[in-house]
Amino acid sequence: MILPLLIAAIAGYLLGSLPFGYLVARAKGVNIFEVGSKNPGATNVRRVLGSGPGNLVFALDVLKGVAAAGWPLQITFTQAMQDRSGSLQCAVAGLIGAVIGHGFSCFTRFRGGKGVATSAGGLLVVMPVATLLAAAVWLVAFYATRYVSLASIIAALSLVVAAYFLKLPSLLLGLAVLVAVFVVLRHRANIVRLLNGTEHKFAKAGAEPKP
After folding, report:
1. Do residues 94 and 40 touch, judged by C-beta distance below 8 A?
2. Digit-coded pLDDT (tens) for 157-203
3. CA 207 to chain centre
4. Cβ(90)–Cβ(72) below 8 Å
5. What is the DSSP string of the chain?
6. Among 59, 137, 179, 202, fewest CB within 10 Å belongs to which?
7. How many CB atoms lie within 10 A of CB 74?
8. Alpha-carbon distance 174 to 36, whole Å?
């Protein structure tokens, strides 16, 4: 079982490392690492370049997670993956690899985004109900506060709560906890700004972000 897990994790990392935010912005003549929050995620791309490029990056980042977690559930490449538990373990390994790749891309000198969209894509494959509940929480938190960072943190924590009350397998509950920890850690600077009252609320491209 070690080899399938390793293959899934490496493939997931390479998928996650695809720097769509950087590439889409570069196609517009912008180095996304030098503008806005200097983050290659969909939020910064949308803030700098508008909803079209931003939504495209979001969709592509989600698809990275879907692909990384989805293909091990569809392809049986060893006898060890004939059972559901084996393929699920490989799907989780692929998703973890993709989230790490998105945050530390080998194609951009190990710089990357915060992993929310990529995590959501993969989680939608392996725990769809819990993920949809977390997405609903994100929407409520975002429209109530207009802070993308705060909404992402609350949604990540709510995923753990949803996985627990839905009595998902311990593997998936552990995955939810791991993703929540990763998301919170990647938002450390945002948390400091939120506590200091200096975090910028979401604003459209060309609009002056307001604290």
Report:
1. no
2. 999 999 999 999 999 999 999 999 999 999 999 999 999 999 988 76
3. 25
4. yes
5. -HHHHHHHHHHHHHHHH--HHHHHHHHTT--GGGSTTS--SHHHHHHHH-HHHHHHHHHHHHHHHHHHHHHHHH---SGGGSSHHHHHHHHHHHHHHHHHHHHSBTTTTTB---SHHHHHHHHHHH-HHHHHHHHHHHHHHHHHH--HHHHHHHHHHHHHHHHHHTT--HHHHHHHHHHHHHHHHHTHHHHHHHHHT-PPPP--TTSPP--
6. 59
7. 8
8. 34
Residue 18 CB neighbour total at 10 angstroms: 20
Could you give the percent of the chain with pLDDT greater than 70?
90
Q: Distance between CA atoms of 163 and 25, rounded to whole angstroms?
A: 36
Torsion, Cα 85 175 124 7, to 10 degrees, reads: -60
Query: What does the block give as tokens for 167?
Result: 């009595």
| pLDDT digits 0-9 by tens, 113-130 | 998 999 999 999 999 999
